[in-house]
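Contributing new complexes? Match this layout with NAI.
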Amino acid sequence: MIKSDVLVLGGGPGGYLAAERAAQGGKKVTLIEKRALGGTCLNEGCIPSKALLNSGKLYEHAKDSAAFGVVAEHVTIDHARVIARKDKVVKTLVSGVGATMQAHGVRVVMAEGIIKGKTADGFVVEAGNEEYAGEKLILACGSVPVVPPIPGLREGVESGFVMTNREVLDRKELPKHLVVIGGGVIGLELASYFNMVDVPVTVIEMLDKIAGPTEKEVSAALLKEYKKRGIDFKLGCAVTSVGTDRVMYKEDDAEKEVRCDAVLCCIGRRAFTQNLGIENLGVYMERGAVVTDDHMQTNIAGVYAVGDVNGKIMLAHTAYREAEVAVNHILGKKDFMRYNAIPSVIYTNPEIAGVGETEESARAKGMEVRSVKASMKMSGRYLAEVEKGDGFCKLVIDTRKNCLVGCHMIGSYTSEMIYGAALMIEKQMPIEQIKELVFPHPTVSEVIREALFL
Ligand code: NAI
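Output block (do not edit by hand):
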């Protein structure tokens, strides 16, 4: 039996940051990971998709460069090299996480961990024919793609015709026609890449809007932009079955089909909690996800759950913060988790980013709000650098408290700007105080300040 103060199950952003922070706090830490350090984010999610999207943007810029006075001829895309570069980026970051663990004295066990229960030594996890015990246990086991019981879908995954985010990021050849099932975050980011590299893309989405809970004007602007770029959308259409060279869907009670040579299925993810032995501890779960309090502790004292496994907000940056909150609780430091100012970004081209309330969600909570909308074209830098696109920034202001409660944007750089709005919301800064802040000029971020004066 190998004993530690803190056992961490899962080496994604939630797990590795929890391990690092606990070690920094003087704890003896063991981290157990069955596949690769970095988890979904580094290996088959956030980071690899950003590498692809950047190649797509470079290709698009190179083709459209004449408008900027740069003449490039015979520009082509080499998708296999895009994937090879992505692999290099992933390898660098994964080995960086390994080095960080080593630098902090974290014992890393590369094996599948199964929770055995609680003994006098602490919480016990078996991994690779060895038993590990921890006084505290942090569950950071992440999530897996949902593959619903649509006829033909599972067979398609087995044959390789249907891909999830994992397979699509490794495929070295471009498809001739890609069907994307699900117009949510993953679907849109990858549809954006394949569209940029000239692959015809059809997105089939059950709802009548794309990008799920995204603010409605932003979502509509993104849809308009995508249609202009040639992506075909089947909205309000549920997929009914998948064949070997086509996808069948229902539109207004009529059965229709679209032929293709590859399918990407991205209709959501679920917390990964099966066959882990979680039930051996009696940890309470709801709809397959581990339930936690605002210290990220479960109903079992000393057992915490951070990241996708608690099913709250499946974003790497949420996992980071949850990991810190859990570790602070273990270290006896005062802290608690707040979800009201967590930014979300969809790294499509153009990017969209949002934080806090929309007008609708604010009113549903009984808030009195007004909104203001500023065009990105108010920014000199945006005009100088972005040839196409009608980006905007929409602010939602609580008129009783006179503070910002929401910010929703579409356009270049919004992913880098959104944290500023998150800060203003988290700190509940009065509008008059925000107006006194000096923004660097020329930057696209100035549009947030401009909007406040409308
Ligand atoms: P999602 O929940 O964002 O979108 C799934 C979409 O599929 C929904 O719009 C839903 O209406 C649709 N859908 C469900 N069943 C369908 C059917 N039978 N036919 C047609 N459409 C159907 O899920 P997604 O895109 O798989 O992403 C999973 C998770 O990964 C998300 O929770 C997200 O937070 C995370 N993620 C975050 C990223 C980011 O922050 N930039 C990037 C990629 C993933």
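Reviewers usually confirm one structural detail per submission. For this one: The CA atoms of residues 258 and 383 lie 39 Å apart.
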